[in-house]
Write a structure and sequence with these properties.
The protein has 51 residues and is an all-beta fold. The chain is 0% helix and 16% strand. The protein has one domain. The mean pLDDT is 77.
């Protein structure tokens, strides 16, 4: 799933992985909780993990 954070000064698309049983539809607003201990970042050009 791809999403954007509304109201962010520099909104960028994010890729998230959700349980396949999650009932979300395109264009529908949703609240998503984020476990900060499980965030992973990748270089947008190389795809390499940023540690």
């Amino acid at each position: 799933m791809y999403l954007s954070i509304n109201g962010a000064a520099a909104s960028r698309p994010l890729t998230v992985r959700l349980d396949r049983r999650t009932a979300m539809r395109e264009g529908t607003p949703a609240r998503i909780g984020v476990d900060l201990q499980r965030l992973y970042f990748f270089d947008p050009h190389s795809g390499a993990a940023i540690r």
